[in-house]
Structures are given as structure tokens and as C-alpha cells.
Structure prediction request, 296 residues.
Amino acid sequence: MVNRQQPSPMPTGKYRGYEQVDIADRTWPNQRITQAPRWLSTDLRDGNQALIDPMSPARKRAMFDLLVKMGYKEIEVGFPASGQTDYDFVRSIIEEPGAIPDDVTISVLTQAREDLIERTVESLKGAKRATVHLYNATAPVFRRVVFRGSRDDIKQIAVDGTRLVMEYAEKLLGPETEFGYQYSPEIFTDTELDFALEVCEAVMDTYQPGPGREIILNLPATVDVPPPPRTRTASSGCTATSPAASTSACPSTRTTTAARPSRRPNWPSWPAPTASRAACSGRASAPATSTWSPWA
Prediction:
């Protein structure tokens, strides 16, 4: 995907980079960002669906217009299945000519339930560039207390949700829509690394990313917990890059992406995503098209 972020007027040249820490047996500390990442705004979504007095469509529109004016090219605009307010807002900016610039991608969030997925994809009808962001809880406390399920049960939720997103995108979205997919294992920072990787690989096996089919793996710190030492140590393996992926990112980054589709896909049969697995299991430090997290 082309990085549509505009050059910033900020005097970034006046700031010097941090001092390198050379550690012979690890390569992750040597990775550095040298170009601007792809910036994604979640201001219109994060927590909004849980507020006792959520923003009205008019207030959300004012913020959306401001984000566009600031130069954001990827904006998560809502949680349409959470209520009529978010749904109506998403529909309003899609239906109003010129409200969403041609080079701006909107994203919408959904949980991994069929009724919510259908409502979410439905909200995107007519959009030129859109991403569905699906998540399900993978952390041990959620598996034990909320779902009372095994690892396999939780992984199946992610797989089934991904399949449903594909089915409803095929059914409800027209050829005018460039469609992308994003998946989040919640809470990544509190999920066993091997299980987070296992779930992400299962999702990619289902979605089959490749040239012209973008997948974004969002690695969220939904609840602030310090990244355990094993996370940082495991990050030392973040050196392998994938030919199938235009970018990859360390666990301290927000997302890792593969090439974006040119149009709504017909879900062709791509070869087994061996390279995509490499992109998930071996991360490079966030290059120009990753989305950077402030807690990195």
C-alpha cells in the first residue's frame, strides 16, 4: 500500500535519534525507524462506544473533518454495531459526496459475532476504501473467566470471525470498494506469545493474505500492563522479513501490514502463506508503512 502521509511541517530535523544499545546476542535493539510510519487515528473509536455521553454524529463529524485536514490517510471511524449513533455516522460520511477524500481509508471495529459482523460490513456499503477490524479476547483471564474455553476454542472464534468477514464482504460490498482486513488478539501484552502467534497464523491461513490482499495484525495493549521481559527478549527475533509483506513490525508497534488489495477481492486461492507466517513470527522494526504506538 502506498504511504499517503503528507510531509510534516514539524522541525523533525532538530531532534537527534536515541543512543544505540549494541547487544551482541540480540538484533532487535539495533532496529531503528528512519522513515515516517503509516499513521492511523483511532480517536473516533477508542472508548467512544463505552461512554455514558458519547459524541453525537455532529461532534464526530467535526473531529473527522479535523483529522482529514491534519493529513491522516487512515481513520478508524467507529464501532457501527455498538449502536445507532456510530452506525449513522459511518453511513453519513460514506453517503455524502466528498466527505471522505479518495485517498483516505476508513476503518470500522467489530467483535467476532456474526450479527455484529454483518451489521459492521453493511455500514460500509458504497465506501471507496474500507477496512474491517475484528478482534476477540485471547488473554488467559478472558479464556478462563469470560469464555470458559480452551485455547482451541478461542482460536476458532478468531477463525470463524475472519471467515464471516470475508463472506459478508463478498455478499454486501460492491466492486467499487477497496477492502482490507485487520485482526487483533486482545490483550496481546497479556497473552502468551506462542498462543498469540498461533492465533494470528490461523487467521492468516483463513484470510490468505498475499499480493493485492492486505491483512493488518494489530497487537494491542488494551489494558496497560508492563511488557514482560520475555516480550522484549522475543523481540530480538524481529529480523526476518517477508516477501509477501510490504511491512512488518515489532510487538511494540501497533500493526503489521501486507499489501493492500486494489479492489474488493473475489477471495482467490492463494498459496499457503508461509511467507506471511514469517512476517508474523519474525518482525522487522517498524518501517515506513507500519502504524506506530506511543508506548513503544
Summary: Confidence is low (pLDDT under 50) at residues 228-262, 268-296. The longest helix spans residues 151-172. The two ends are 23 Å apart (CA to CA).
